[in-house]
From TrEMBL:
<dbReference type="Pfam" id="PF01380">
    <property type="entry name" value="SIS"/>
</dbReference>
<feature type="domain" description="SIS">
    <location>
        <begin position="34"/>
        <end position="119"/>
    </location>
</feature>
<dbReference type="InterPro" id="IPR001347">
    <property type="entry name" value="SIS_dom"/>
</dbReference>
<protein>
    <submittedName>
        <fullName>Phosphosugar isomerase/binding protein</fullName>
    </submittedName>
</protein>
<keyword id="KW-0413">Isomerase</keyword>
<dbReference type="GO" id="GO:0016853">
    <property type="term" value="F:isomerase activity"/>
</dbReference>
<dbReference type="InterPro" id="IPR046348">
    <property type="entry name" value="SIS_dom_sf"/>
</dbReference>
<dbReference type="GO" id="GO:0097367">
    <property type="term" value="F:carbohydrate derivative binding"/>
</dbReference>
<dbReference type="GO" id="GO:1901135">
    <property type="term" value="P:carbohydrate derivative metabolic process"/>
</dbReference>
Length: 119
């Protein structure tokens, strides 16, 4: 399979149009809150998710580490079996979930709230 210059330019044009749509339609307030939370974090940043969301969380962890931000993936199944001991006051825990009600993730929310983490 070969792709020609015209197809490549078309792809970039389509991607640019979609980014423009996102830029004009996204609610920036939650994004700003997340940026502020991460920028003011005095501890570590943990990301967690299940399935495809876990892969996105792991990629985000890698990206943060590349720019020297202390970030770690928190495996949801390990979290309910003792891994929450790594999360301390002042840390930020970011949940990535398509639906927002994944049982594996919601099961350890109360423990994190008790630890006074920022969610």
């Amino acid at each position: 399979m070969s792709i020609d210059e015209k197809q490549i330019r078309s792809l970039f044009r389509i991607e640019g149009e979609e980014i423009e749509k996102l830029a004009t339609s996204i609610d920036t307030e939650p994004v700003q809150r997340l940026i502020d939370l991460m920028a003011n974090c005095k501890g570590n940043i943990f990301l967690t998710g299940c399935g495809t969301s876990a892969m996105a969380a792991k990629k985000a962890v890698h990206t943060l580490r590349v720019v020297d931000i202390p970030a770690f993936f928190l495996n949801p199944s390990d979290a309910v079996h003792g891994a929450l001991g790594a999360v301390n006051v002042g840390d930020v825990v970011i949940f990535i979930s398509k639906g927002g009600n994944t049982k594996e993730l919601t099961s350890f929310l109360p423990n994190l709230k008790e630890n006074m983490c920022r969610l």
